[in-house]
């Protein structure tokens, strides 16, 4: 997922369109993780945790779970040390 900005084509499938389609297709529960982020940013919280959840619910989904980033917790630091 990337925010679409500018005239160039962005990496697909688009998260917002995918979440909308899943709801319309009858998927009732999804869990979303942002593996490209090691800590929260406004993009993650606004576009995924809030906007995508709203879109999923508006299109028939019932349960949307945003799996939190590891941030600076002990597990997150272990991952960074291994990498």
Give a structural overview:
With 83 residues, the protein is mostly helical. It has a domain at 27-82. Helix content is 43%, strand content 10%. The protein contains three helices and two strands. It has a two-stranded parallel ribbon. Strand 1, helix 2 (42-58) and strand 2 (63-66) form a beta-alpha-beta unit. Helix 1 (15-24) runs parallel beside helix 2 (42-58). The longest helix is centred in the middle third of the chain and has 17 residues, at 42-58. The model has no long low-confidence stretch (mean pLDDT 86).
The gist of it:
The protein has 83 residues and is mainly alpha-helical. The protein has helices at 15-24, 42-58, 74-82, and strands at residues 29-32, 63-66. It is globular and about 40 Å long.
